[in-house]
Amino acid sequence: RFRGPDGTVNVEGRLVNPFDPELELVNSFNVKIGLIVDLFELPFEWEGDAKGKGRLIRSNGKFAFNSEFSSDTLELNDVYMGNVDGKIDFDEVDGGHVEFRMRKKDLSREYLSIRFRGDRLEGSARGFYLDPIMNFISIPWPVSSPAWGDFSITRRRLRADIEFRDQILDVDGFNYPFKGQVNVDWDGGKKFSFTSPGLTSSFADVEFEGEMTVGENIDFTITGEVLDVKLAREFISLVLNKEFKIPEIRGKGSADLRIFGDFIFPKVQADFALISVGFDKFDVNSVTGNAEIIKNDFKGKFDVDDPFVKGKIDLITDMEEVKA
Fold this sequence. Notes:
- About 10% of the residues lie in helices and about 60% in strands.
- The protein is built from three helices and 24 strands.
């Protein structure tokens, strides 16, 4: 038995020829998950305990190890991962393979598979909820859809191609489902980039690209069709953690949006062409224009076209008042 600050390992088995040992050891363990994470150099921040049983073999001068494990205390980037079980297979020739099967209360099962050899790691995810990843980069994540996809890590740089597959896109409270593909590139530090050729939700059908340096700056462009301006505004407000001090806007149409500048207080610029538009208590046929949000200030220029109302409106709001 081996006992230390990170846990306990019990070992029993046989050893032949100590000078060029052939061995087969059966072990059981109850250790900090950090031991597994450090051994296989997994990215992100993991906490919790893991217990299990395994076998360590040395034959013909090479080591091999396989084990099953479980945990009900695992956290990834401060997000509880529910009941977790998995397995580890490793040998010096083919590298290693780690599987995680996770089940959180009231959610579907998640699956994560990681293969590694040398300084390259690659893997796949099935039904994996991205809350821990978004928590790592300090962005609110009001998204209910799990992700499927493949990823690789070489010299700490991560590349991932993921897909959201929800078919029913109804919003449930502040949880928004999505369908579409997203490509992610992470430099292993603070810099992330994202692109999507098409992402569909109940409020928009868009493509986007952008990059961010966590805690420093952000620059995203989003282009496409807005299906519900009211829902789109609510979603952006949640993601940016910003309450817009302007009356309710309704409608649908096309928009080009840019979010850029300071990571905590980014600027928002938008050009749009909307139909069936409602603004507070007023309804009109169509509106084109542009808008800008800087911290808590909103500035917009609107060109209104309606049988009963035509003209240009300039709107300015801040924390205290609305001017038109």
